Amino acid sequence: MPPSSPHAPAAGAPPAVSTARVLAGLCLLVPVLVMLWVPSYNRLAPGLGGMPFFYWYQLLWVPVSALFTGTAYLLVRRDEALRRAAAPAGPGPQDGGRA
Amino acid sequence: MRHVDWTAMAVFLLFFALVTVMGFLASRWRRAADAAHLHEWGLGGRSFGTWVTWFLLGGDLYTAYTFVAVPAAVYAVGAAGFFAVPYTVIAYPLVFLFLPRLWSVSRVHGYVTPADFVRGRYGSRVLSVAVALTGILATMPYIALQLVGIQAVLDTLGVGGSGNWFLQDLPLFVAFGVLAAYTYSAGLRAPALIAFVKDALVYVVIVVAVVYVPLRLGGYGSVFAAAARKFAAPGPNGGPGGSLLLGAPGQWTYATLAFGSALALFMYPHTVTGVLASGSRNTVRRNMAILPAYSLVLGLLALLGFLAIAAGVGAGVPGFNSQLAVPQLFAQMFPSWFTGVAFAAIGIGALVPAAIMSIAAANLFTRNVYREFLKPDATPAEETRVAKLASLLVKVGALAFVLRMDKQAAINFQLLGGLWILQTAVALVAGLFTRWFHRWALLAGWAAGMVYGTWTAWGISSPATRHFGGNSAEVPGLGESGYIGLTAFVLNLLVAVVLTLVLRALRAPEGADETSRADYSAEAGDEAVERAPQPAAAH
Q1: The model's pTM
Q2: Cα–Cα separations (whole angstroms), residue B52 to B33, B57, B210
Q3: 8 A C-beta contact, residue B115 and residue B368
Q4: Taking CB atoms and an 8 Å cutoff, what residues of chain B touch A3?
Q5: Contact B92 A66 (CB under 8 A)
Q6: If DSSP states are collapsed to H, E and C, what string results for B166-223?
C-alpha cells in the first residue's frame, strides 16, 4: 500500500490511488511476500558454487529487494513532485489527519 | 598462561586510538549554530545527507553484537540462525511506508523522540511515557551486549579474563570511559564520524573473509559438507545439533521471527534517532534503498558460522561458547596484523551503536520523563545538560549490567527488548496514518502485549537458562510455533481495536491532536518546515 494522500486532490493532481503509488506498493510488497514464503526456498538443490539453494537464494534477494525499494523510491518521488506542483500554495487541510 | 598476540593487539590499539581522536574532534564537524539545543547534541542538528545517514544508520543497525551473534547462531543451529537475512530484506520495504511520515511530522513539530510524537498526536502523557520507558528498557541490555562483543574480541586477543576482577575488566573500563567522554562532548556527531571508519573496516574484513577463508578450506562445497557432518552428529545436550535446512515446524518460527524483528527494528529509539538526524524526507527514502548493502554483509557474515565449523573452531571443546566462533576463526585463519584489523572492526562496531543508543535513551529520558514530569519549563540548554548526564548514566548502567550479571542475562534481556519494543509499534505506526485508535485503548493494548510476551517468554527454558530461554512459542489457536513478540503484537492490536470501538461508543475524551494532515508529508524546504519551532523548544 502506498502512503495515503497527504493533500486534498486539486485540479491536475494525481488521484489518491495513482498508478505510481500502486506500482510502488507492489514493489514494496513483493520482497516481503517472497521472504515470508519459506517453503518455497527451504531446500538444498540447486546449489550454487557449493552453496545450498536455501542460502544463496536468500542472499540474492538482498540486492534484488534493494532494486525494488529503489524503484518504489523513484515512483513515489515523481508522484510527490506532481502532487506538489498541482497543489495550491500554502498549508493543506488542517483536519488533524483523522481517518 | 595465555598467549597474547602483540601484532594483532598493536593494530587493534592503533585503530582504537584513531577513532578516539576522531570522536573528540567530531564536535567541530558541521559545527552547530546553537550548540545549546538538544537537537544539536542529540540529533546532530538534523542535517545529515544521504551518505552520512547511510554510514550512521549502517553503523547503528549492524552492531558488534550482530557480528558476533548471527554467525554464532548459524554455527550452533544452522539454517534457523540465518533468519537475520530475510529479516533485513523485509525491514526496508516495510519501514519505507511509514518512516518518511515520521520524519516529516517530527521535523515540523520539533519532535526528538518517538514518544514526543505519541505525546503530540494523542495528547496523552501516560501513553507517551509508556513508549519512552519501553524504549529505555529495550535499549539498556542492547548497550550491554555491545560490551559482550568487545569482551569476545579481548578474550580472543588474550587480554582480560584472568587475575582479579579489576584487571580482568580494565580494558573494558578504558574503552567505555573513552566512549562516554566523546559522546558527552560531541553528541551524535561522534558516532556519525566514527561510523565511516567502522563501516569501511567491516566491509574490508568481510569481503576478505568470505573470499580468502573458503579458498583455504577448499571452497564452499567442502564448507557445507563439513557443516552437514557436524549437524548429523547429536548435539552437546543429546538433542539434534542443528540442520542445514529448516524442519517443518521451524518454518513458521523462521517467517514470524523475520517479520516481527523487521517491524521491531525501526521502533528502537536508536534507529529512530538515526532517521530523525537526516536532513530530508527523501534522504530517509533513499536510505531504505541503499541500506541493504549492509544486509548483504550481514548475510555473508552469517556464512562465517559455517566457515568456523569447517575450520574446526571449537571442535571437541566441551561447552564451547559459540559467541567466540568468529573471533577465533579470524585469529586462526588470518595473519596477525589482519586479525588486528578484523578485531578493530568488531570493537569499533560496538562503540558506534553504543554511543547512539545511549544518546537515544538520554533523549527519551530528557524529553519524556524529565521535561514532561519533573521540570516542564526546562530551557533548551538545561535539556541538553540533562541529556548529556543521562547518556553517562545509561552507559554506567550498561557496564554494571555486564559486570554484575552474567552474559546470559544480557542475551535474555535483549531478546525481551525486541519483544517489548515491538509493543510500541501499534501506537507509533498506526498514529502516523490515522487518529482512529483511542489513546486509552492503545495503552491497554501495549500493556496486554507486554504482559503476555514477558509471561510467555518467562515460561521457556533452554539448556543454557531456566527462563527466557527462547523467542518462539506455540501461537494460541494456530497450533504452530511462532515468534512470541509477533503474537503479542497481534494481541496488542486486537485489544486496541476492540477497546477503541468500546471507548468511542462511550464517548470517552479523545485528547488533543496537535498535528495536521499536511505535517505528515512535509519536506525540507517547505514553508511548514521553515516555520518549524526550534526542536528543543517544541510545542
Answers
A1: 0.88
A2: 19, 8, 27
A3: yes
A4: 97-98, 100-101, 433, 520-521
A5: yes
A6: HHHHHHHHHHHHHHHHHHHHHCCHHHHHHHHHHHHHHHHHHHHHHHHHHHHHCHHHHH
B93 and A29 within 8 Å at the Cβ level: the answer is yes
B226 contacts in A (CB within 8 Å)? none
Q: How far apart are the first and last CA of chain A?
A: 16
Three-class SS of residue B48?
strand
CATH-assigned architecture of domain B6-537 = Up-down Bundle (1.20)
Which position has the grid cell 555486564?
A: B402
* Neighbouring-strand partners of residue B243: B78
Q: What is the pLDDT of residues B183-207, one digit of tens each?
A: 888 888 888 888 888 888 888 998 8
Tell me the C-alpha distance between B57 and B448, whole Å.
Answer: 31
Rounded Cα distance between B400 and B423, Å, is 27
Q: What is the rounded distance in angstroms from the CA atom of residue B267 to the CA atom of residue B430?
A: 13
Q: A24-45 pLDDT, tens per residue?
A: 999 999 999 999 999 999 989 8
Count of CB atoms situated within 10 Å of the CB of A39: 10
Q: How confident is the model at residue B34 (pLDDT cuts 50, 70, 90)?
A: low
Interface size between A and B, measured as CB pairs under 8 A: 164
Q: Which of A65, A23, A57, A18 is nearest to A40 (CA)?
A: A57
Half-sphere exposure of B331 (CA within 13 A, CB side): 23
CA distance A63 to B311: 29
Could you write out the DSSP letters of every residue in B468-508?
S--SEEEPTTT-SEEEHHHHHHHHHHHHHHHHHHHHHHTT-
What DSSP state is assigned to residue B517? G
User: Quick check: helix, strand or coil at residue B44?
Assistant: helix
Nearest to B23 by CA among B59, B58, B50, B61: B59
Across the interface, whether the CB atoms of A73 and B255 are under 8 A apart is answered no
> How many angstroms from the chain centroid is the CA of residue A46?
30
- Alpha helices of A1-99 — where are they, by DSSP H? 19-36, 53-86
- Up-side HSE of residue B54: CA atoms within 13 Å toward CB? 17
How far apart are alpha carbons A25 and A33 in whole angstroms?
12
Name which of B103, B55, B77, B47 is nearest B305 in CA terms: B77
